[in-house]
Amino acid sequence: MTHLTGQLLFIFIYFTALAVLMLFGLHKYYLLFLFRKYDKQTADTPQNPETWPAVVVQLPIFNERYVVKRLLKAVARFDYPQEKLHIQVLDDSTDTTSELVKRLVRVLKKRGFSIDHIHRKDRTGFKAGALDRGMKQTDVDIIAIFDADFIPHPGFLKETIPHLLLPNTGMVQTRWGHINRNYSMLTRLQAILLDGHFLIEHFARDRSGKFFNFNGTAGIWRRQAIEDAGGWTHDTLTEDLDLSYRAQLAGWKFRFLPNIISPAELPIGMNAFKTQQHRWAKGSIQTGMKLIGRILRSGLPFHIRLEAIIHLSSNIAYLVISIPAILMIPVIRYQVEAGIHWPALVYLIIFLCATFSVILYYGQAVKLALGSIWPNALYVPAMMALAIGLSVNNGFATLEALLHRETPFIRTPKLKIEKNSDSWKNSLYRAKMSPLAIIELLLGIYFTYGIIYCINHQQYTALPFLILFQSGYLYTAGKSLIEMRA
C-alpha cells in the first residue's frame, strides 16, 4: 500500500465514522420532533380504584450502610393503607449493612408494618436474582421497586397505581429527580444527561407508541407482565432493559409519568460514574444482541421495530467515535501537506447533524427540567465534552459485549451525599479506577498537540472540535486520577 493510498484510506474511514455519528445525531432531531408533536397532548388521568390493591415494595440493596435507613424511612411514609402494603428488603450485603437492616426491620414491625428482610448469602444473578427471589416469596400482583439511593415521596403509590390498572398496562415508570444536582460540575452534567433521557427520549417513545424501558427503579409492575416476559434473568448487565423489551414483545404496554418525580442521589465520583456507565453501556448492547432478532421477527410495525433497534444499539456510537478521535489529527495533517481545503459546507453539514442536534436536544432538556435555558444551557458544551470523555470507558464496554466477554455486576456506591457540605472522603465504599484513565489522559495530550498544530498551521475550523475532545478526555482522566490519589 502506497503512502497516498494509506492516507486516502484513513480519510475514507474517518468520514465513514463521521457519517455514522451523523445518523445518531439525526436521530436526536427525530426524538425532538416526536417530543414536540405530542407535548401538547393531554395524557389520560385515570380514576382511583374503589379499593386500593395490595402492593409489595421491593428494595434490592448491596452494602448500603449510608442510605438504607433513609430509604426505609421514605417507604414507611407512603400514604397507603398499611394493611395493603408489604415491604421486602432484598439484601445481598456482605458488610454491616445487614445488621443495620435487621434493627430497622424490627422497628418497623413494631410500628405495624408488614416487612421481610431477605438476606442471601450468595449473589447469584445479582440484582435480578434478588428480585426474582423476592417474587417467589409473595403472591402480590403489584410490585414497586426502588434502589437504595432513592427517596420516593409519600404519594408515589396512589399516583402511579391508577395508571398501572389501565387495560394491558404492565409497567409505569416515573422520572428521576436529583437531590444533589448542584453538588459539583460532574453531578450537574449527569443531571442534564438523565433529564434528556427521561424528559425527551422516554416521553417521545411513550407518547408515540414506541418501546421504552423500565429504569430499574422508581417504577411499578404488574406481576403478570413480569411472568409473561419470562421473569427476571441475569444474562445481561441491564436486567431492567432486558425485561422491559421482553414484556413489551409479549404485548404489554408501558407508561411514563414525567410529572411524578422520584428523587435520587447522583454518583459524585468520576470512577463511580464510569462504573455505572460501563454497566449500562455493556448491558444495553448485550440486550440488543439477545433480542434484536426477536424484534425483527415480531411482526410489529416497522417504525416500532426500527426505533427499538436504534435504542438498543445506540451505545455503539461510543465505539464509533474513537475512529475520528484517533484519525482527526492525521487527516488534518494530510490536508495541510496536500493543500486541501474542505468546503465550508462539509463542516456545516457535520456540525448540524452531529453536533447541533445534541445542543438542541439537551438545551430542550435543560429548559424542561429547570424552567429556563439561560444560564443553565452553558453546561451543555461541558456535558458534550463529558460524553466524549466517556467514549473510551463506554467504547470498551461495548466491545466487551460484542466479544461476549463476561464481567460481574459492579454496583455504584451510594454515599448519602445530599448537600454541598457533605463529604465522601471517609467513605468505606470506593469505586476502583479503571486503567482506561491512562488512555484518556494520553488522548487528552494527543489532542493538545492537535490544537497547537492547528493554530500553527491556521486550521481554525477544526479547533472547536479538538478543544471539545481535549477537554473531555482530560476531565475524565484527571478526575479519575485525583480520586485515586485521594
Structural notes for this entry:
- It is a single chain.
- The chain has two domains: 3-36 and 317-421 and 428-485; 55-285, Alpha-Beta Complex (Spore Coat Polysaccharide Biosynthesis Protein SpsA, Chain A).
- It is 56% helix and 10% strand.
- It has helices at 3-38, 68-76, 97-110, 126-136, 156-164, 185-207, 223-228, 239-249, 270-296, 302-313, 316-320, 322-338, 344-370, 379-389, 391-402, 436-456, 463-485, and strands spanning 55-61, 85-91, 114-119, 142-145, 169-178, 219-222, 253-264.
- Strands 3-2-1-4-6-5-7 form a seven-stranded mixed sheet, sandwiched between helices.
- The mean pLDDT is 92.
- The chain has 486 residues and is an alpha/beta fold.
- α16 runs antiparallel to α17 (463-485).
How would the blueprint of this fold be written?
Blueprint: H1 3-38, E1 55-61, H2 68-76, E2 85-91, H3 97-110, E3 114-119, H4 126-136, E4 142-145, H5 156-164, E5 169-178, H6 185-207, E6 219-222, H7 223-228, H8 239-249, E7 253-264, H9 270-296, H10 302-313, H11 316-320, H12 322-338, H13 344-370, H14 379-389, H15 391-402, H16 436-456, H17 463-485
Parallel strand pairs: 1-2, 1-4, 2-3, 5-7
Antiparallel strand pairs: 4-6, 5-6
Helix pairs in contact: 1-6, 1-12, 1-13, 2-3, 6-13, 6-14, 8-9, 9-10, 9-15, 12-16, 14-17, 16-17
